[in-house]
Records
---
Amino acid sequence: MGTLETLRPGSVVLVGGGPGDAGLMTVAGRAAVEQADVLLVDHLAPADALAWARPDAQVVDVAKLPRGTFTPQERINELLVTHARAGHRVVRLKGGDGFVFGRGMEELLACTEAGIPVRVVPGVSSSVAVPALAGIPVTHRGLVQGFSVISGHVPPGHPDNRLDYAGLVASRTTLVVLMGVKHLPEITAELLAHGLDADTPAAVVARGGHPDQQVHSAPLADIATVALATVAPAVTVIGEVARFAAVLAPLQETH
């Protein structure tokens, strides 16, 4: 099945929109947007990508904003199925990659269980793209041989948190935290409690891929305080590679 195939009426395409800049979307993602009859769009999806939609396409806002507009996942699943059953070509457009903390699999299962043809167009995940946009590699030869991506949506000690922080520290990999701005004090405290050096470099990249992108750097012990004024969405990078944020920053400030 080719990724640039013509969308079939009565089908769904789950499109990852990348980290924020529409220019970072895939060619297949753009093609799907251009053909859609109905687009179900998250607030983190690249807004400029909607300019590619047909004038008669229906755009449905299904945002999940903290303390704001909230569309339950069950309702989103229902809309996907309902519009597809009406014979529409449906595109679900969200930020990043829908299969990295994006509930993409829940939507795929909802469609398949309803007998709706569905396919996936992967997106550029913010877990690697946003650090890269700040000049931070999640791996670097001779420095670190892997990276771990975790959700900071719930803090350490929460009943829904199944992360092994001791194991994360012992892994000696770069740690990338998504959705972690609110709980960064608890997360850093937990890492420190399990032996991660207080001087470990860390950086918070806010609004990655947007013109107003900001990078805040500090040692692990201080990064939560430095990031207090950070506005989500933001990605936190903890590990030796976070030092590289200082390399690109002067160049970005001159442009």
---
Amino acid sequence: MNRRYRKTIIAGNWKMNMTATEGKALIEAIKPSIGKVKWCDVVVCVPAVDIPMAVRSTKDVRITVGAENVHYEDHGAFTGEISARMLKDAGVKYVIIGHSERRQYFGETDTTVNKKVKAVLEAGLHPIVCVGESLEQREMGITKDLISMQVRAAISEVPADKIRRMVFAYEPIWAIGTGKTATAEQANEVCEHIRTIIRKEFGARTARAVTIQYGGSMNAKNAAELLAQPDVDGGLIGGASLKPDDFIAIVNAANQE
């Protein structure tokens, strides 16, 4: 982490878990500890039906609400979809875009990721853009090539003055839900590479300001080591975000002076 230049952000990704009733209980369980947080921002990215509850439940504490997906059009005949304008009106501040599960199961592509990024930025929200490689791709030695392509596609035609509002999450696909985790050094190497791409496109000052998270099974046990890396600015937390004690432990690891 490097708080001199950029935010540290711990974001929970609930995925398709938690009814509104269950989610409210989870938020209430973490609120007392989050109230003591000073050195990092905390976000809960929740299922769409939980957004109103989450916004109401976090009004009196430093927790920001995020969405797990968005459509790139502002409105129209897209049954079942939700626009960035709708999310903003509901009280959302962050939106996850391009998660590996969206790419794998729902046909998300680099092209749709870019469209969604621009729509979210236009609405005044913050995109959390996920990039990452499979185990096969890592073993082929093309991790950096693939990450470069995904990052450049995501930021294509994005105005320079809006790049700082973006958050990137490096999520090695082989480390999501498998119990495997990239070493701290592996995580930092790719996060540093992402920053290098941004620096080449937009300059060193902008690159220093962009938050880059690690999103591959960060948990209570490995959070401190991962967050100690200079280019790991937080975490996009999956399963551990559903366990109050574990999520609080990760937040505490990011909240060190």
---
Amino acid sequence: MSAMLVYLAGPGGEAQENFLADLCREITALDLRVAVARPDAAQATRPTCGAVELRLGADGLSLLSPGGAPSLEEALRLLEGTDLVLSLLLPDEGKPVVEFCPAGSSPGLLGRPGLLALAGPGDLPPDPGVPGFGSAASLAGFLASRAQSRTARLSLTILADGKPIKAKAFVRDIIANSLHGLLAPLKGVEGARRLEIIIEE
């Protein structure tokens, strides 16, 4: 599965759950398949708006589907082709994060590496250096464009003192996707068709 993983950080609660449900519906309407990951101890009793859910706990994971708990085969089939995973787990440092800000609150993750966007009805700064979205529909469009841009195969050429280094396609894909994921949140990178990294001794 080559899904784009985005952490939806925030205080939780009903407002964030409603926003998540709306976001999943809007993403699905854009012909993308979405999954939701949350802690195993989460209070939500059913999968969000038809999306397959991963519940991650200390002893492993379980999967839920709209029709009830699937078998392992059914779960893998549901996850196959997933374009986007929205995670309510604790965000990993530097990974893509959307911070949900409820009404009356302000962002707490500004300046954090990987912060993609701010969302929700809270007091979003007018120009924090990251886009802010008041509606699930507008955020869905933003995430969809990022997820779809990842589906194109990235080309990678590695030169050592001007001579190309041979590497298998699998290795090139890992390096290219890792570098792209690290650099994509940086200012000035958005929309770039070619990135060059030069390391010298």
